[in-house]
Amino acid sequence: MAVNMKITRKAVLKPSPESAWGGAKKVPITVFDRASTDGYIPTVFAWRAPAPTNGALKDGLLATVARFPHLAGRFAVDDYGRKCLHLNNAGVLVIEATAGADLATVLAHDASAHIAELYPKAKKEHADEPIFQVQLTRYTCGGLVIGMASHHQVADGQSMSGFSASWASAVRTNSSALPSPFLDRGATDNPRSPPLLSFNHRRIEFKGEHSSSRSYRVLPLDRINNLAVHFPGEFVAELKAGVGAPCTTFQCLLTHAWKKVTAARDLAPDDFTQVRVAVNCRGRAKPPVPMDFFGNMVLLAFPRMQVRDLLSASYPAVVGVIRDAIACVDDEYIQSFVDFGEAQHDVKLASTAATLGMAFCPDLEVDSWLGFGFHNLDFGGGPPCAFLPPDLPIDGVMILVPSCAAKGGAHLFVALDNEHVEAVKQICYCISRWQRPPKPASPRANMFDSALTGRTRRQEETRYTIRALLAVALVACGTQQRAVVLVAYWTQKRTVAGHGCAIKAAARAPDARNGEQRISRAGDGVGGGHVQRWATTIVGSQEPGAGDREGGIKIPFISGRWEDCCGGRGGVEFPFGSELNVFF
Questions:
Q1: Is the pLDDT of residue 363 over 90?
Q2: Cα torsion through 340, 346, 347, 350, rounded to 10
């Protein structure tokens, strides 16, 4: 909705010289800073009335910034021509604004068009641009929106969460309680002598002339759409229950989102997809760095899977892939990265961090704010009522944020190519690991209580050529565990009256005691009725729908028997509880 906005004041505010901790020093940026995004990161939160006055907010801000001198400093160049931070107490930018609307009304409508007016538009190319900027917007009801923008090469999300909590505490207590952050950047930049590089950081965190890292295309910004998905606490609990083994909210939500976005993108089954996962290294270094360290200490993990495997794998399996990848960001890796920074101290490095318009497809990048305290920020009137996500102009970037409204819930904010948004909307709440999105020209009908999807029949003559891979896993036979894999190819012709098909199939049954047994079946010119009975016997419903696209579904067996299509000679029995993978 359109909201009449008015800027009432704009000023750079400085802590008093007596309170400032900077000492006018020039501080080198660390290798972690150099690997971070060279740009400003906005965050926007809303509070219902009553809210503290702007005067109280500004007084608390200045008292807090005095203890976080990097935010009141400026980027500069040292005596060797290298980028650094000048802790010169130059101040922070504060914008005060009013909005001619009721906050609740704005939040109840599509607030996305209004969000861009709620935080400062920092310009990193300006020489004296404030590193931290904030906008205080008042609504007619007394509600308040605070929009912050801070440069990522100065501080990561963990740091800005701690700063925000300190600011809120200063406002609540009239600056009588001011936590002191850990400011020693040397704790994160302690290389070995001589440096020992165990990993190719030119390929991972930085671009190099001979880098083998992925190259991504760039999309026009108007093709990138932002989608917000709320996962209630009950949904998150159901995901965790489905994983079985202990897992974090982040791990289960990332697993779910990775599956759904990959399915929506309709990637080739043989493609590989990976997620760039931001990992907080403070507790992983040896010795560990205090969690209240103010600066950057984040590296990336890269869980990677083939599309076919990701879409067919169980949630516990994908959680395991994510957990193993994150575990690789250990002390050995961190120390190698620090040593790399020392070896490249005088070399200009280009980060592999995302840039505007980048399309990560077939990959994703995720930042988790689930462990941050933004949703608990209390300036005196209680925690925020909403997090308002600014535009994410990068296809495939995801942010996970705790729900401000309900305990245990979470929000997923993801930027996607326009052509994938509707598909994600249709399947984002389906926990089944087998569902894939429809194409607009060929909608799917719901089956098995939304767990199984099939294509509706077209009421005209249509020819389909489809390929199917059927995998049946975990077939229990007494105490013996067998895995039976069926591979089938068929060509199907549908008419208004009926259909026929030709089937060729092979079953492979590894036997724990007798080795691998191979069972082959083949049939041609099979009538449609036979195939329908075959599918009904196995699935307990209509046959899986055919289609003209690469895709996949997973069907839970009710019971059944796959028989030789040429006359019912023999077959393979599938007990209740077996599962069927279908890729078509």
A1: yes
A2: 80
